[in-house]
Design a protein that fits this description.
The protein is an alpha+beta fold. It has three domains: 53 residues, Roll (Structural Genomics Hypothetical 15.5 Kd Protein In mrcA-pckA Intergenic Region, Chain A); 92 residues, Alpha-Beta Plaits; 78 residues, Alpha-L RNA-binding motif (Alpha-Beta Plaits), CATH 3.30.70.1560. The protein contains six helices and 17 strands. Bound molecules: uracil.
């Protein structure tokens, strides 16, 4: 293997997305041949000794891709200082270090991908590739046509306007409603903040779709492996966008 940027090597070895690996380097947790690495540094994984927190980095070419039905109450991280249940606790594969592709809030349930392929995670979460994600949101009150139109067109958030979304009213209950919202971005707590902005706080949130993938028959806490065709199709989609 040739000389490559350190964050790319770490991502391939399963330490998270390229951005997460850049953070590891910035935090001074990565060493190359015993010296603390700096961002921008390159290395040769075959000939250099690369470590993260003192542990040798090994590139494992057996990539695993998992679709999990995340239950509420699980954090989408590999490490939680508060010791809460983690999505990685639900998918234990010996010798494989999985991490979530993007994240769902603690109290959001539904479709979450996990992998040990950092390049794949980078492709799926990079804003440029804009993969569609669909959510069902149980909201307080009955959104008017005007509120739905505002959600569709985009609402102003402190970090910028949200991009056009697809929004459908699925059901109305006495003082609540279920909206189906599809977005191509992944701003923090985006769906919750969009609905809050138009006056309809989210009571329950579930991700039902990621690109063409759905939950199928998976019950909360259950997972299945993606097929190689599904993985290839996702990569193809991201490259085209
Ligand atoms: N939008 C949110 O508000 N929360 C999520 O977990 C995902 C999208």
């Amino acid at each position: 293997m040739a000389v490559e940027r350190l964050q790319k090597i770490l991502a391939k070895a399963g330490y998270g997305s390229r951005r997460a690996c850049e953070d590891l380097i910035r935090a001074g947790r990565v060493k190359v041949n015993g010296k603390v690495a700096v961002l921008g540094e390159k290395a040769d994984p075959k000939n250099d000794l690369i470590t993260v927190d003192g542990e040798r980095v090994v590139i494992n070419e057996r990539y695993v891709y998992v679709l999990l039905n995340k239950p509420k109450g699980y954090v989408s991280t590999v490490h939680d200082p508060q010791g809460r249940p983690k999505v990685t606790d639900l998918v234990k594969i010996p010798g494989v270090r999985l991490f979530p592709v993007g994240r769902l809030d603690l109290n959001t349930c539904g479709l979450l991908l996990l992998t040990n392929d950092g390049e794949f995670a980078f492709l799926m979460t990079h804003p440029k590739h804009a993969i569609w994600k669909t959510y069902q949101a149980l909201v307080q009150g009955k959104p008017s046509l005007d509120a739905i139109e505002r959600l569709r067109k985009g609402v102003p958030l402190p970090e910028g306007r949200t991009a056009p979304a697809e929004v459908r009213l699925l059901k109305t209950l006495s003082d609540k409603a279920v909206l189906e919202i599809s977005i191509r971005e992944g701003k923090k707590r985006q769906v919750r903040r969009m609905c809050q902005f138009v006056g309809h706080p989210v009571l329950e949130l579930k991700r039902t779709k990621f690109a063409f993938l759905t939950l199928g028959d998976l019950r909360p806490g259950q997972f299945r492996y993606l097929t190689s065709e599904e993985v290839a199709k996702l990569k193809e989609m991201a490259r085209k966008e």
